[in-house]
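Worked example 3 (structure in, sequence out).
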């Protein structure tokens, strides 16, 4: 059963210094293990089917989603793909760092973008990495319905699954990475060391939010059910799990049957 318990980073009052510690960690962890690499072929397929060469990444945090696999997407798509990173609480220092190291392939918006209310001028394949679980079913359906309304393809990927191994995996990796890798996370911040080793607010938040995230992840059939509850017959939906090393990535892809340009 899906449980929508509270994640600390969902609170508007949550201190930015800790929020950034969380999203920096997520980018670092997904980058070192190249967690999202297998999702690149799904994106490249969407690009080939639709001819849309730009990606609007929603809920990008510190850039730890599409931002970590831009090279793979480019090489599989065979043409330069532009990625725009956006978030309701953008981690600007991190997004700047990711953009500056991307050879102009990745840019970001400094102003907040709410995934439930994407501005009409943002055109491209919409991606949500490890963030669809933030939304209760009503809002999750609004996100899908808005893609359909704008005839924009959408891809949802969640690193993990709603299961005991999923929860155990989050606890194990969080403890190991926070303990041994924190000083190597970029961009370097003294505050990260303080809030990890002296006052461990970052690891404790990561543990709580990580476990709650796993309990919130929608299963593939639950996401497909959502698509049937919105008016989306003109989209082809596929959902499932990708097994990558020891990790499972839950996903759903929606592509319009025809693209009106
Ligand atoms: C678990 S983090 C994932 C970040 C990034 N995609 C990654 O994989 O590293 C979830 C992100 O969703 C963002 N978020 C939460 N609610 C949002 C909303 N309504 N609109 C846009 N972003 C939102 C948070 O600010 C946070 O950066």
């Amino acid at each position: 059963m899906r449980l929508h318990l509270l994640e600390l980073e969902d609170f508007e009052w949550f201190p930015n210094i800790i929020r950034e510690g969380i999203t920096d960690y997520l980018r670092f962890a997904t980058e070192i293990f190249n967690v999202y690499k297998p999702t690149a072929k799904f994106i490249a397929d969407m690009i080939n089917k639709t001819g849309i060469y730009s990606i609007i990444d929603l809920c990008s945090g510190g850039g730890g989603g599409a931002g970590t696999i831009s090279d793979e997407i480019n090489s599989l798509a065979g043409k330069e793909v532009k990625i725009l990173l956006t978030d309701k609480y953008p981690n600007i220092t991190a997004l700047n760092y990711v953009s500056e190291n991307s050879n102009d392939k990745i840019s970001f918006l400094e102003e907040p973008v709410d995934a439930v209310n994407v501005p009409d001028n943002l055109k491209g394949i919409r991606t949500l990495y490890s963030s669809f679980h933030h939304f209760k079913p009503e809002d999750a359906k609004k996100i899908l319905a808005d893609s359909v309304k704008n005839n924009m393809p959408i891809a949802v990927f969640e690193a993990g699954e709603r299961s005991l191994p999923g929860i155990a995996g989050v606890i194990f990796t969080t403890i190991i990475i926070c303990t041994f890798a924190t000083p190597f996370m970029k961009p370097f911040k003294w505050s990260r060391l303080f809030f990890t080793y002296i006052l461990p607010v970052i690891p404790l938040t990561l543990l709580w939010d990580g476990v709650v995230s796993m309990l919130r992840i929608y299963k593939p059939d639950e996401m497909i059910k959502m698509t049937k509850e919105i008016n989306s017959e003109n989209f082809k939906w596929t959902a499932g799990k990708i097994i990558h090393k020891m990790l499972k990535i839950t996903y759903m892809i929606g592509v319009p049957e025809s693209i009106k340009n």
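Notes: The chain has a mean pLDDT of 96. Residues 23, 26-27, 30, 58-61, 64-65, 87-89, 114-116, 129-131, 134 surround S-adenosylmethionine (CB under 6 Å).
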